[in-house]
Each structure stands twice: as structure tokens, then as C-alpha cells.
Amino acid sequence: MLGGKLGIMVQLLPELFALIGINVFLVLSLLTYLLKSRFPKILPYVYNIAAIVGLGYLVIDKLLYVAYGEEYTRLWCSFAYLVVALTNVVAVNFYVAAVKRSWTIAGVWLGAVTLPSILISAFFISEYSLMQGGVFLPASQVGLLVLGSTLGMELIASLSLNRAKLLQRGKEVK
Amino acid sequence: MNLRKIASKRSTKFLILLIASLLISAASAEIYFSMFAQSAVTITGAPVVFVLGSDAPAGSTLGSNGTWVSLALAAYPNVTLTYGDPLNISNTDASNSHQFRLRPVSITPSSGASVGNFTSINFNVENATGASQANVTYTVSSNTWNTPSATGYLTIPPSTQWIISVSTEAVAGASSGNTENIQISVDVIQ
């Protein structure tokens, strides 16, 4: 009779992207509410509903996962959800900067929300790709890093510009 | 007063939004964790298995997958009978060593007049060069078997076979036909 121990392999699940997406939507919801004078009143609630949709997707996904264990669809659905969430972060950033012309807020948003969201997503995409044997193309990962770096440089430039203007005018540039 | 009301209304709305956000975040994390906790179990062959040796007695049976074995051993009166190579422990893992031990589980009958016909039964673990590594020895005193304790864990190198040799001895004038059933477990650390 032979006895032994059970080994459990730990790995990232594709639903991690949906989880990040949900949290991004929730952050968007809270921030757009706090800055509601600059956004349509309904926007925070729309983002909250988007997060609830993500939660619903996770529930359905869990049932499908238990039933079929199918991974390809799960991965791309979760990834698409994350892309939508990140697109909204960038869109809000663009809206504040280009439409509302609130350069200071746009700069802070870029540094505090957009850049961290994209870099965190890039990190997990890279980790997932390593674990699953190159699910995402290296080009897409490099693209994300380039995007993150570009945004970082934009942030530095934006803050420098704002600082210069503040020094010139002695007040916040709106 | 109106300003206070407006501020209070805004705070309440924000609080509701915040609580809803926390609930959604916690629920989604919980669902993700519940998926994460569903581990996959894959069937693979046991890395350490039994293999019958060149000296295996007639009537011995090796179970499928080499995970159990039954040895039909004999004992002669007033003489020590040694099976030099009845059973092997094989580490089929080509890259990893594994630890195992022999652990006595049961011996039946454990006491009685029939037990008095035996002197000792010894299971000895030898490495590939024939050096003794550990042993499990059953001895009889006052018609009762003294059950030995388990061996310490032994490390068997990759792609190696070790031998479990067996020695039996019955008392002078022992009656034929008395049988003992011994169960020993081999515990393997993966």
C-alpha cells in the first residue's frame, strides 16, 4: 500500500482580468462622483452598473467553468472586459483634458489612475502569459509597456507644464 | 441650512455608492477566490512502486500499477529462512529522489498458541549496493507478537531499485500449517 501527499499547482485564472476590470470601474464610479461637477451626473451610476455587469459575468463564468472547464472563451471575455474598463479610464482622462480643459486634474488623473491601471494590467497580462505559455503575443505586451511609458512621459510633461504655468500665474490652471 | 442639507444629501449618496462599491468588490473577489480554490487533480502513475524480485516466492502477487504486493512466505522450524531478493522498491522518477518508510499496519493473529510456533519475521531494506538501511522485525514473546515501530524515512535516488529482503524463523518442533498475515504500508513523500 502506498501513501502520498497531494500537490496543488497554483496559477492565475483568466478571470483575474475581469476582477481588475471590475475594480477599475468601481474606482471610476467613485472618482467621477467626487468630481461630479465635471462629468454628467449619471456617469458614476453607469460605471457602478458596469461593475455589477462584471460581477454577473463572474457568476455566470463560474457556473460555465464548473460545468465545462473551457478556458479560451473565459480568457477573451475577461480580457475584453478589462480592455473596456481601461478604455474608459483613458477616455475620462481625455475628456477632462480635452473637453473640460482641466489640465491639473487631467495630469493628476493620468498619474494616479490611468498610468497605474495600465501598468498593473500589463504586469498581470505578462505574468499570465508566462504561466500559460505565451497566450498573448509578445508584441501586445511590448505595446502595453510602450503605452505605459508614453503615458508616464506625458504625465511628467503635463506636470512640468502645469508647474510652469502655476509659477507664472500663481494659481491653478483650469 | 440649505447648504447643510445639500452636503448631507451628497454625503449620503456617496456613502451609498461607496458601500455598493465595497460590496461588489468583495463579492467579485470572493467568486474569484472560490474559482481559485478549485484545484485540478490529475491521475499520474505513482513514482515509487513495488517490483517483484528475482527471489520472489511462488504464489506472490503484484497488484496492478505496482501499488500493492502480496508475498507468500514460508518459515521452517529451527532454521532461519532468508529471501534475498523477494521484493524491490523502485523509484521510477528519473529526476527526483523520494522518501519512503516501512510502517507496520497489522499482524493477525496477534496472539495465541499458534503464534508460539514462530520466533521472528524480519523485513530488511537494502540499498542498490546491498547495504542495510532499515528493518522491521517482528518477534514473539509469551505467544504474542511484538509489533515493531515504523522505520525512519529513507531517501531513494532517482531511477533506482532497492531490495526488501525477508528472514523468517519458526521454533523447533513448530506445527505445520500455522499462518500469520502481516500488512506493512510503504509511506512515500512525494
Descriptive overview:
The complex is a heterodimer of chains A (174) and B (190). By secondary structure, chain A is mainly alpha-helical. Chain A has one domain (15-169). Chain A has helices spanning 15-34, 43-68, 72-99, 103-132, 138-169, and one strand at residues 2-3. In chain A, helix 1 (15-34) packs antiparallel against helix 4 and helix 4 packs antiparallel against helix 5. Chain A is flat and about 65 Å long. Chain B is an alpha+beta fold and 190 residues long. Chain B folds into 2 domains: 1-41; 48-189, Jelly Rolls (Sandwich). Chain B has 1 helix and 11 strands, in the order αβββββββββββ. Chain B has one helix at residues 2-36, and strands spanning 48-52, 61-62, 69-70, 80-91, 98-108, 118-126, 132-141, 144-146, 154-156, 160-170, 181-189. In chain B, strands 1-4-10-6-7-8 form a 6-stranded antiparallel beta sheet, with no helix packed on it. A 3-stranded antiparallel beta sheet of chain B has the order 9-5-11, with no helix packed on it. A two-stranded antiparallel ribbon of chain B has the order 2-3. Chain B starts with a helix and ends with a strand.
Descriptive key words:
heterodimer, A: 174 residues, mainly alpha, 5 helices, 78% helix, B: 190 residues, Jelly Rolls, 2 domains, six-stranded antiparallel β-sheet, 1 helix, 11 strands, 41% strand
Rounded Rg of chain B: 30 Å
Strand content of chain B: 35-45%
Strand order, sheet with most strands of chain B: 1-4-10-6-7-8
How much of the polypeptide of chain A forms β-strand, as a percent range? under 5%
List segments of chain B where confidence is low: pLDDT < 50 over at least 5 consecutive residues: none
Helix percent band of chain B: 10-25%
- Strand elements of chain A, count: 1
- One letter per element, helices H and strands E, the order of chain B comes to HEEEEEEEEEEE
Q: What structural class should be given to the helix and strand makeup of chain B? A: alpha+beta
CATH architecture of the largest domain in chain B: Sandwich
Number of strands of chain B: 11
**What can be said about the biggest beta sheet of chain B?**
6 strands, antiparallel
Question: CATH first level of the largest domain in chain B: which class?
Answer: Mainly Beta
> What number is the mean pLDDT of chain B?
90
Helix and strand element order of chain A: EHHHHH
How many domains would you count in the coordinates of chain B?
2
Biggest interface, residues from each chain = A-B, 33 and 33 residues
N- to C-terminal separation of chain B?
Answer: 72 Å
| Unreliable parts of chain A | 1-9
